[in-house]
Amino acid sequence: MMQKVLTGKQAIITGANQGLGLEIARKFVLAGADLMLCARNASMLEDARAELTGMAPAGQKIVTQVADVSVEFDVHSVVAQTLKLLGGCHILVNNAGVYGPKGEIESVDWADWMKAIEINVYGSILMSRAVLPHFKAQGYGKVIQLSGGGATNPLPRISAYAVSKAAIVRYAETLAEEVRGTGIDVNSIAPGALNTRMLDEILQAGPEKVGQAFYERSVKQKETGGAPLDKGADLALFLASSASDGITAKLISAVWDDWEHWPEHLRELSGSDAYTLRRITGRDRGYIWGDK
After folding, report:
1. Model-level pTM greater than 0.85?
2. Domains of the chain by start residue, with CATH
3. pLDDT tens-digit map of 28-38
4. Catalytic annotation on 275?
């Protein structure tokens, strides 16, 4: 049985009605947390609430609110209702995200491109802004940001997603430095290539929209199963728990990083730019002619 490492803690999970967000919610319920789940689709959110309530023992609270995280009013309403209904908040999981339009930048719908930025970037920033005063007042908090392949690699024809994921990881690093020493940890998760609705979007768009190479990789991912959802959810649970206290400003791969043993190396991690977004110089690659 899972240890109740989140007993007495309250968490907000955005985009929690399906995919990785819902899997994270399942882990958090089993770990003892009270949850506020938000998403845009009301019926799917209700299905998620019913499932999670069935998993939770009596007295554990699971509440929901339909919200668009790119709308400031919705964000403040979610946080206010969390504090009212759950009695507090210790953890924010910024999971809500979209791919946005697929295609070459000059041909995609600009309104759709901007909406993806608003959800993926502004949404996470608005959510963190809204919870930070509470986190600072209690001297403790966990901000867990979901990243994606766009943070570390260019993604031609999926530019809104790539731009937003790089931007939000750098925001998380910056926020971590702003709140360093306050008891608030801020980290980003790279969950791996997941077989979720977002993968189905790529397959439906086809190679003419996303490019032949990316489409073929996506087909192979669909066939092989991709990265297990529970890898990213387990990392989210670790980052939400006290086991990760002091680990902050990192971009962590759920699949490739040995994060379970990172607490043994807090001093090294806090003094290093390892596991962050940084520029690669010529000397990093053995080119002696490019740097002074």
Report:
1. yes
2. 10-192+227-255 (3.40.50.720)
3. 999 999 999 99
4. no
